[in-house]
Amino acid sequence: MRAQFVLSEIGVGLRRNLTMTFAVVVSVALSLALFGASLLLSDQVNTMKGFWYDKVNVSIFLCNKSDGETDPNCAKGAVTGEQKKQILVDLKKMPTVDKVVHESSDEAYKHYKEQFGDSPLASSLTPDQLQESYRIKLKDPENYKVIASAFAGRDGVQSVQDQKGILENLFVMLGGMNWAARAVMALMLVVALMLIVNTVRVSAFSRRRETGIMRLVGASGFYIQAPFIMEAAVAGLIGGIGASAMLVLGRYFIIDHGLALSEKLNLINFIGWDAVLTKLPLILATSVLMPALAAFFALRKYLKV
């Protein structure tokens, strides 16, 4: 097969159906950009889980004087010194506990003022209204239920709270956003495939005279199909390069510069450049193979004589 002939036919086909080729490039670029973004979002969620789950604490809030009037868990009154001592002893005996930190009412009040000092409620609070607590770092965050079952309902304990439960709501929301992105990506992918098939068939129809002559002189089916398949592959590759550029620029301007989320949201451990760069070969390979296979199957029946 002469490479020069194939390349010239590719150029002719792309120029002849310029509008549809442009539509293919744009749809492939958008669908693959969404595909890459969904993969990166999955990596980001997993990175955040590993980062935050390693830092979450279980908090055991102890009853104070005011809780006895409003909270049934504290009906027996404020926690006693003996009860606090026994809770601490029992915590240190548990193999799942890594570290225990006691926070007094005064310390809780100080932390509240630092975080919510501008709120109207802060001016009306007093230290004795805030519970003292034990903040427990677990060796495995999944073992929260062990702490909850051991201390919930005990005399002097107002409640046992797991920060992991709060984070789970965030990760469920991020997971939902990821699936929404995948749904849009799938829709765009279907649109791209339909455009590829139509573009290839229009191109084949406009050159039906040339392909008929090639059939008569004994050219093989693959020899005839090759220019059309490569047209689709080239258009897809251009779209894949566009999708890769979107991901790289998105990472650069959203996280590092421009919005600079890495500086503004320093509590989030963002994915690095390695996560982005490892997705680009997959996107480029998909951008070539997907249109080529679509064109191949679309032409098998169309070019039969």
Question: Topology, please?
Answer:
Blueprint: H1 3-16, H2 18-53, E1 57-62, H3 67-70, H4 81-93, E2 97-103, H5 105-116, E3 133-138, H6 144-151, E4 157-162, H7 163-206, H8 208-216, H9 221-256, H10 261-264, H11 273-302
Antiparallel strand pairs: 1-3, 1-4, 2-3
Helix pairs in contact: 1-9, 2-7, 2-9, 2-11, 7-9, 7-11, 9-11
Describe this structure as you would to a colleague.
- By secondary structure, the chain is an alpha+beta fold.
- Helix content is 69%, strand content 8%.
- It has eleven helices and four strands.
- The protein has helices at 3-16, 18-53, 67-70, 81-93, 105-116, 144-151, 163-206, 208-216, 221-256, 261-264, 273-302; strands at residues 57-62, 97-103, 133-138, 157-162.
- A four-stranded antiparallel sheet has the order 2-3-1-4.
- The two termini are 21 Å apart.
- The mean pLDDT is 80.
